[in-house]
Design brief:
Layout (H helix, E strand, L loop, with lengths): L2 H17 L2 E2 L29 E3 L5 E3 L8 E6 L2 E6 L2 E6 L23 E3 L3 E5 L18 H8 L7 H11 L5 E5 L6 H19 L8 E2 L8 H7 L5 E6 L3 H7 L1 H6 L1 H15 L4 E7 L5 H12 L4 E6 L16 H17 L22 H5 L10 H4 L7
Parallel strand pairs: 1-4, 8-9, 10-11, 11-12, 12-13
Antiparallel strand pairs: 2-3, 4-5, 5-6, 7-8
């Protein structure tokens, strides 16, 4: 596999994330052999009966965002599938296998795929609360649609703890990462206690003293609760304000803004002391509301404090307030990720023991953080004029 092909796949992953893809063929085996979409925590398209993800090469995976106006098309030739643009085939594509548990039920007759969904091939994701308290008072994040998604899905808002234990006991060994996240509780201390309960359930189900996260939750008011969370054996914790710029943070995330950046900072400091350098993480969205310079200022701010940063790519979601907002251009996204990757390496956060930023390039489907730090796309091998020719974007 050539370095040039890895670079092209990385660029294409970002392009597909922001522009989506028009599916021009029938895909056999979805919901049988191929993993289908499940209305879990967030919904980013209105497709029905399509695969959950597109897998390019070396497990480079992106969420399938259906867009019938996209310049990219998913086509079929004989039994193989390809991504094309303007009639030119860009790259072959595969679909991830349907997880073994998606057709199973718990002893309480709960469909297991309603309890957890698989991201990529190696990450089991569980929504602690599939809704968010901030939707009850209008202070929700404007890019978020978790509550509307859950209401539309009809899936129980909270998964039963015994159901979770049963799923983990039977199928947890199939996965490397366990991603817990969800909406903010009205009482953030109760939220943390719920994560503690679920962490214990995962630890018990796996029969291990330590397991790989991340757990992404709201900072509790009582930060001593983080000691109990650490005792569950989870190896990485993440607090996600999502927006760095102060004015944008206040207007886009009014609920999180009330928590306050100071409390986020203190929570990350306590977490870093418990979990160690590189295992306390803050996540930001690369969105059109702030400049590259502003966002990278936030990246440096946290790296200076020994806090690892993960960047994800904004895409407008149906039923969110930002459903019609355009993402940044592909060139802007790549430039931001490239500078971010340089900083991660400069501060010594990669290579690391996990061999990834949070989860793998398979599980981290809305980001190219892993592809960047692994050197698939670098400042040295990237040429704006030449490398975006195949996408005809300048």
């Amino acid at each position: 596999m050539t370095k040039e092909l890895l670079k092209k796949a990385t660029i294409l992953k970002v392009a597909l994330r922001t522009k989506g893809i028009n599916v021009k063929c029938d895909i056999e085996g979805v919901g049988e052999k191929i993993k289908e979409d499940v209305l879990g925590l967030y919904k980013i398209d209105n497709s029905k009966g399509l695969p959950n993800e597109l897998r390019l090469i070396k497990n480079i995976t992106t969420k399938l965002v259906y867009n019938n106006q996209s310049p990219f098309e998913l086509i079929r030739k004989d039994s193989d599938y390809f991504i094309s643009k303007g009639g030119e085939i860009l790259m072959p594509v595969k679909f991830n296998e349907r997880p073994r548990f998606y057709g199973e039920f718990t002893s309480k007759k709960t469909p297991m795929k309603n309890i957890a969904q698989v991201m990529g091939r190696d990450c089991l994701a569980i929504a602690v609360d599939k809704q968010c308290y901030y939707f009850t008072n209008g202070s929700f994040c404007k890019y978020c649609n978790c509550t509307p998604t859950n209401i539309e899905s009809g899936i129980e808002r909270f998964s039963d703890l015994e159901d979770i234990k049963e799923l983990i006991s039977k199928f947890g060994k199939d996965y490397k990462f366990f991603d817990l996240t969800g909406g903010t509780f009205e009482d953030r201390d109760e939220e943390c206690k719920r994560y503690i309960e679920m962490g214990k359930a995962i630890k018990e189900g796996l029969g291990k003293s330590k397991f790989s996260g991340p757990f992404s939750l709201s900072p509790p008011k009582n930060l001593s609760l983080l000691e109990k969370l650490h005792e569950t054996g989870i190896d990485v914790i993440s607090f996600n304000p999502d927006v760095w710029d102060d004015k944008s943070f206040e207007s886009i995330c009014p609920g999180k803004n009330k928590i306050g950046k100071e409390h986020y900072d203190e929570s990350l400091r306590v977490a870093k002391n418990l979990w160690g350098r590189g295992n306390a993480v803050v996540q930001f969205l690369i969105g059109p509301w702030e400049s590259k310079q502003s966002l990278l200022e936030g990246v440096r701010y946290h790296l200076d404090r020994d806090i690892l940063v993960n960047l994800t790519t904004f895409y407008p979601s149906p039923k969110s307030s930002f459903k019609k907002m355009y993402p940044k251009t592909l060139a802007e996204l790549i430039e931001t990720y490239l500078e971010y990757g340089e900083l991660i390496k400069e501060y010594g956060f990669y290579p690391n023991e996990r061999k990834s930023i949070l989860t793998s390039e398979s599980g981290n489907r809305s980001s190219i953080s892993n592809e960047i730090v692994k050197g698939y796309l670098t400042k040295e091998n990237y040429n704006l004029k030449e490398d975006l020719k195949f996408l005809e974007e300048r």
